[in-house]
Amino acid sequence: MSEEHIENDGRTLHWPTILLGIVIAAVFLTAIFSYQLKSTEYAVISTLGNVKLEKNAGLHFRLPYPIQEIFYYDNRDRCFEGSVGKIEETYTKDEQNIIVGIYVKYQIVDPVTLFKSNKNVAEAEEALNSLMRNDKNRIVGKYNFSQFINTNPEKMKINNIENDIKNLLKNTALEQYGLKIKSVGITSLGLPATVTTDVIARMKAERQEAAQAFLSEGKKQAKKIKYKADAEKQDILTVANAKAKTIKAEGDAKAAAYYAVFKEEPELAIFLKKLESLKKIAKSRTTLVLDTDTAPFNLLKPDAEKLKRKDKK
Are 186 and 104 in contact (CB under 8 A)? Predict the structure, then answer.
């Protein structure tokens, strides 16, 4: 008898084959009597009509189908834009046609309620789509057109509109489908072709009116600034002129004292003035061709002293 075979009533048993069969059976039984749950999932277990929720990730025991059925639901945030109402016209409070597209961000927080109502996410989103359309139209009808589209950002109420849709939608979505609405946003704003031309013309007129108002205000401010600058300039000139007259008067008074001294020696005074003039004229290296008989250049003549005596007589 070899190590790989055992004789038993004339039959040969193959241990490797037996072990492989045991492993396959174990894997098969594990697949039948257990299920794996991810951390990003919820599981709803239906046992002959009785439903329970499992949230803990890992390997769990189960009874085979059809005794038990396992339904998995993703517990992460989901974004849904809907398929109805994105190109559908609705009316604002002031009866203007507008096309508003919205999205919702939601999370499955009550899979049991969702299971009992629709059983799968696709059917739940189809129901949510209808709710989004109805609630959006109700809220849009409470606001004027200018609160959606306006050249003045302060008059727009987009955030208020989104919050109102969310508040109207969240209770129904949670109670009927186990969906928690986390946020609602407007994805697009459009106008029907029949009113686009009129709206654009009106918006242009509003912008032109606003631009004219800015221009008028700018001109008004410019006049005020110019008037203020002219007034300040005149004040500065007045003060400067007064100060200049004061300085000139002081200079004249001091000059008068020097003139009184010059009267004591008029010839010396005239001589000094001539020298001062000559210094100013010949301040740098200068070549002059002048008549020496012309004052003050007559001082340069050899007989200048005789002229001085002659002038004195």
Answer: no
